[in-house]
Amino acid sequence: MTNFSELNISASTLKSVQRMGFEEATPIQEGTITHAMEGRDVIGQAQTGTGKTAAFGIPMIEKVDTKNPNIQALIIAPTRELAIQVSEELYKLGYDKKVRLLSVYGGQEIGRQIRALKNKPQVIVGTPGRILDHINRRTLKLDQVQTLILDEADEMLNMGFIEDINKILESVPPERQTLLFSATMPGPIRKIAEKFMKDPVEVKIKSKEMTVENIEQFYVKAHEREKFDVLSRILNVHQPELAIVFGRTKRRVDELAQALSIRGYLAEGIHGDLSQAKRMSVLKQFKSNKIDILVATDVAARGLDISGVTHVYNFDIPQDPESYVHRIGRTGRAGKSGIAVTFVTPREMGYLRIVEDTTKKRMTALTPPSSDEALVGQQRVAIENLSEIVNKNDLGDYRTLASEMLEKFEAIDVIAAAIKSMTKEPDATPIALSEERPLPARRERSGGGGSRSGGGYKGNRSGGRSSSGRSGSDRGSSRTGSSSRPSGARRSSGPRDGSTQRSTRTRSPRNEN
Ligand SMILES: Nc1ncnc2c1ncn2[C@@H]1O[C@H](COP(=O)(O)OP(=O)(O)OP(=O)(O)O)[C@@H](O)[C@H]1O
Ligand SMILES: [Mg+2]
């Protein structure tokens, strides 16, 4: 463990770091900060929630010359929410050095951004779409940029973003330093990355598994039409303080958020079709505990650091193992513990195995709770609430009322009635969600090893996006959907040994945001 004071960082940055409450550097910070401060290009890979933002943020802030009025660093992030969050963290890191920083992202009035750009920011954090927009309008001058950072690099180098990133790269001097960070870095993507880096140092924090140990991982097998009732019961048993439920599409997210509200949960949805103001207000409500359940597409899967997320539910199993890693990584951050539950329909079991093979971690099967167990969960909450009130010991007049009652009734009956009246009986209001097409069954690959057919990791995502006609969202929003259903051999249940199920990793265009 290295203390930040041993890392040779300036007094002003050290002061900011300490104000943020950081003492010891996390392994990825320890492993990358020195290399990056020496000017090396760095590919940094470490598990979710382990401090990658400061790992690239500290050396970047250190390098900024506050007397130079030009933009010296550009940080690109895949979503608006992440761009905002990263800029907040970098602002704190550069607070004592007084680094001027600006975030630019879609959905925010461009005129305002153009005016703010005139105040000579030295660091820009943005989403690819909006950065390109400013480059095209000539409102963003990047010819003095010395540090280029891609947060969630693998996501950004995926087909959906590669064209935008390439164009942005053309505006940034080739002699810049490049830093790339993510919790996942599939081989083919790393190859693309290396093409525009100079002799990068690769820092991969070794761990047995790709996901952090402190997240308990479960899966629950359920038919599509049963999933919602099972989710409700699990929620009643788990009683999550703060949970994220991931759905596959925007429609799914809308329906799930509404259905959960009907059943009495404090839930709201977030996805790329909502206005930026709505997206921000939903996140704010979630962060301030005004809602307990955030229902989201993958727009919330990457990088978001919301403290206190106790549970992640993959209502729809994600298509890629990488997406799984990022989604569940919204819990169990900075050493806290978390629980992740993934719903899987019988025909999607192949996907579960691919996820497990990638993360090197088996998920534990969870038996769907019965409605009785769900009721017990709610009763337990009532008892906890009641006990808390008793412990507070400020019952005053209520004690007089209680003795009046005890003259008429048995104590045990009075307490039972109190528990009953405080128990939120599980709501079984019938809910019908639109059927979500299950992921196509995985085609089994003949003969093990062999070559990777059909585009590998990149798959065919480009089909879902064109570089023109960008919508309000910063990502592709095409609804081309996946319709191919391989008819070849498939195995929807078999030995969970992971040895037979490596199939081609063809992806369908994503349409979630
Ligand atoms: N050295 C440190 N000591 C204590 N807390 C830290 C330290 N570094 C970062 N943190 C905190 O840990 C949390 C997670 O950090 P961060 O968001 O950078 O993780 P990440 O590795 O980028 O995760 P993801 O892969 O999900 O993007 C943040 O709240 C951050 O402020
Ligand atoms: Mg991050």
From TrEMBL:
Keywords: ATP-binding, Cytoplasm, Helicase, Hydrolase, Nucleotide-binding, RNA-binding, Stress response
Residue ranges that the Swiss-Prot or TrEMBL entry lists as coiled coil: none
Record domain Helicase ATP-binding: where: 33-203
Keyword RNA-binding: yes
Short motif Q motif, span: 2-30
A Pfam family the protein falls into: Helicase_C
Biased composition annotated in UniProt, kind: Low complexity: 478-503
Alphabetical list of InterPro entries matching this protein: DEAD/DEAH_box_helicase_dom (IPR011545), DEAD/DEAH_RhlB (IPR044742), DEAD_box_RNA_helicases (IPR050547), DEAD_helicase_CshA (IPR030880), Helicase_ATP-bd (IPR014001), Helicase_C-like (IPR001650), P-loop_NTPase (IPR027417), RNA-helicase_DEAD-box_CS (IPR000629)
Region (Disordered): 427-513
Molecular-function GO term, any one: ATP hydrolysis activity
Compositional bias per record (Basic and acidic residues), positions renumbered to this chain: 434-446
Record has Nucleus as a keyword: no
Annotated DEAD-box RNA helicase Q domain residues: 2-30
GO cellular component, one term: cytosol
Catalysed reaction, written as an equation: ATP + H2O = ADP + phosphate + H(+)
One GO process term, biological-process aspect: RNA catabolic process
Domain Helicase C-terminal: 214-375
SMART domains xref list: DEXDc, HELICc
Comp. bias (Basic residues): 504-513
Gene3D superfamilies: P-loop containing nucleotide triphosphate hydrolases
Family stated for the protein in its record: Belongs to the DEAD box helicase family. CshA subfamily.
Subunit comment: Oligomerizes, may be a member of the RNA degradosome.
Name of the protein in its database record: DEAD-box ATP-dependent RNA helicase CshA
Organism: Psychrobacillus soli
